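Please decode residue identities from the backbone states below.
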């Protein structure tokens, strides 16, 4: 009742304000309706890792890869490819969940002035259909090719209507574990593996403004790629699915000697998509 009394006291001023607000609201609604049906165009790029100045170049994906975009939380995906002649990302086909088939399309249109975009791209160009697909990382990542294959990209982002292109920057959706080893005897022949088994196949799903990967098979031992060495140091890297509490050991073999380095972090080590998580190991020779 007090709120009503305030409106009565300032009746004339409030009435004018309300009329003004109604006019603004009407304009906003009208603008929202005007954008419906207009084509949405994209400027797509692939980002490196985030974290303490250590970045991973996006060499695993280039513009010859397909990008799968959904505006309805994964119910329908559109396949976009880069046209080298026009220099544009163009819709090539759309997956119809009813007929379970790909069909031709003119691309995504604006259905509201504000929308949520889900976008995914895979190193091996696998397709995203009907809201989910499987994705794999290699248990043996001892070569650079095997390391780069153990990855996929994605982004979930709100977008607001624009007459220009919608910019999408797809991020790595697996984490990178980096092991820096010092006091080595034979760095150029050293090996490193994650003794704690991790699953290597998962199901990718989208929805609730998230991209998620859930385990689909028995875990395996991850072998690291030896990225760099000096006379006494070695750097190893491996890609693994998101994990909030990595624990256990990293097993290193140097000059015929085996070392088990415990991951000593209370509650486990967080390995997040798009980030480099580093472990430092000094060998006691």
């Amino acid at each position: 009742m007090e709120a009503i009394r305030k409106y009565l006291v300032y009746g004339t001023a409030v009435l004018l304000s309300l009329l003004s607000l109604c006019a603004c609201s009407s304009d906003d609604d009208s603008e929202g309706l005007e954008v419906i049906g207009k084509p949405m165009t994209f400027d797509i790029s692939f980002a490196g890792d985030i974290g303490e100045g250590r970045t991973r170049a996006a060499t695993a994906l280039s513009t010859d890869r397909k990008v799968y975009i959904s505006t309805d939380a994964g119910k329908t995906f559109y396949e976009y490819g880069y046209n080298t002649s026009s220099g544009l990302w163009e819709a090539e086909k759309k997956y119809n969940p009813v007929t379970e088939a790909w069909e031709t399309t003119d691309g995504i249109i604006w259905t509201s002035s504000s929308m949520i975009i889900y976008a995914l791209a895979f190193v091996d160009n696998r397709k995203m259909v009907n809201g989910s697909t499987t994705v794999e990382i290699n248990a043996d990542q001892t070569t650079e090719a095997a390391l780069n294959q153990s990855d996929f990209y994605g982004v979930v982002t709100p977008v607001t209507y624009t007459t220009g292109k919608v910019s999408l920057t797809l991020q790595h959706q697996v984490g990178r574990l980096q092991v820096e080893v010092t006091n080595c005897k034979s760095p150029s022949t050293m090996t490193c593996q994650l003794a704690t088994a991790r699953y290597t196949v998962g199901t990718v799903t989208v929805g609730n403004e998230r991209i998620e990967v859930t385990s689909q098979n028995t875990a395996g031992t991850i072998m690291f790629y030896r990225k760099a060495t000096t006379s006494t140091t070695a750097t190893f890297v491996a890609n693994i699915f998101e994990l909030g509490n990595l624990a256990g050991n990293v097993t290193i073999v140097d000059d015929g000697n085996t070392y088990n380095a415990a991951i000593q972090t209370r509650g486990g080590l967080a390995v997040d998509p798009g980030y480099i998580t580093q472990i430092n190991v000094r060998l006691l020779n």
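Observation: Helices lie at 2-9, 11-35, 144-149.
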